[in-house]
Amino acid sequence: MNNIPKYTKHGGTMDTHQTAEHLANLTFNLLANCQEKEVRLATVHNLTQAEFRCLRLFGTDESVNNKSIAERMNLSPSRLTRIIDGLVEKEYIIREIDPNDRRNMRVMLSRRGKHLVNQLNKAYVQIHNEILQDIDVDQHEPLIIAMQHLLEALENWLKKP
To answer: Full-prediction pTM beyond 0.90?
Structure first.
């Protein structure tokens, strides 16, 4: 992060190209740090990062189709099967194979899995609470608004052909 110029409240404004370059560097570093955050949280709970991400896709009472999970995680069916196998072995997930199509399965959280997802969600919020401690309180709302705008713009960009 050392080579990324800082925006200042008072001072030189950047042109659009400089802003885009700055945003590209910031989002690259943000993604890398968020992945490290996930790895750390997953490790604490004896999960791989892929298992952690898979569990984060579930609502506590949700049953999900394996094809839907593969799409949401951008994984091949065989890679997803290995992740699901690990979570079944750890007793966090229950899988039911469709009797009409053995390639299709429904996946749901076990009682133990629901408890873990609840713990993960609380830990995730706590991590972000700790992160916010390093940001002035008066910057919290503008930060959230800016991130919402960035997310919307990114989602709109992704919808383009």
So the answer is: no
